[in-house]
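hey team, just a heads up i'm posting the complex here instead of the shared drive bc the drive is being weird again. everything in one block, sequence lines first with there labels, then the predicted structure for the whole assembly after. its two chains so it's a bit long, scroll down
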Amino acid sequence: MGKLRVVHYINQFFGQIGGEDKADIPPMMKEGPAGPGVPLQNALAGEIEIVNTIICGDTYFGENIAAASAQLKTFLQEANPDLLIAGPAFNAGRYGVACGEAAGVAFELGIPTISGMYPENPGYEMYRKYAYMIETTHSAAGMKKAIPSLVKLIKTFIAKNGELGSPAEEGYMPRGIRYNVWMEKRASQRAVDMLIKKVNGEAFETECPMPVFDRVTPSAAVADMTKAKVALVTSGGIIPIGNPDHIESSSASKFGKYDISDVDDLTSDKYYTTHGGYDPVYANADPDCVLPVDMMRELEKEGVIGKLHDYFYATVGTGTSVGNSEKFGKAIAEELLADGVQAVILTST
Amino acid sequence: MIDKAGIPVAHIATIIPISKTVGANRIIPAIAIPHPLGNPKGTAEEDRAARKKLLVKALKALQTPIEEQTIFDK
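-- predicted structure starts here --
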């Protein structure tokens, strides 16, 4: 086998075109390696040849995903590489998404992709099935560590003729893909073996790792509810009719903030649910059964709470990633803190 | 995230294991998934009363100091 023909995707910054001021440039393809492609090719001399480098501005990509991907497809068809290398993108969100999109385009064309990013880069969760991604540090200061990891994975990729083993074996991040494999012992035997090890307090490796969830130290209790400003937040998708913010009915990418300063009761002619994961009949008939504005107003009038916050926040919980949910939560929390909200009632369906 | 930022949160939800898994601290079991705060089978008065009762419970939870995840089901 001769040298592997490689195309490398990088952003305007690593392509040495410019910083944020050049982030709006559309994709271009150059001959040969550029930026991090140079040390990669040097380390893999004799094994790969970076025939072309595609460079695109991160903002351009983020704002024109369809157009940028279409252009990438044309470039990849033209260059027809054996492998796409994308990034590494570290924790740069737009860059991570661009690398992931590039991997998706390559995947469609039957071209494998090796990339690298920080595990919390949204590009990892969104596109991990399209690429073998090594874990990098948070910032580009980790390039020195990322290059040898990429080189190692590419070497293995070549040695195994593209048939990489499991993430743990090869050192890339899990892709969330399950394969059928033949095992010596059937599942029931493996499960019992694991259980016995667990009971005996011995180490064992699960075959179905659960996602890691956060634990939070509880905030202090409200001292005087009669003076407190309380806000309503829901993952049940209650929004004004017409869905002004175009919140998705599942896998939400955003949340909405709606003014209820003049509203005493959520009525079916003004509000409904956009949530696609539960039977909407009840919520559409009376949205208060998910977002209880009517009774909160009553409690406000009775003086049980100081004030109902003028805005409620809503998103759709179904299928929505932990990453997105954390992002929404952070943004909502910042606004609530700024608005002096002291307590939140969060309703979920 | 809101709790993490220092604002206490009462989570009214039906599927308690999910509420616990996602890290809610003050958990109030709701009525049903499609109408967590409503009793559409009852009269309008019963529906409103059920909703208010849950909210009072949530407000009580928000005034209760806790050290760990707590389910307020009384």
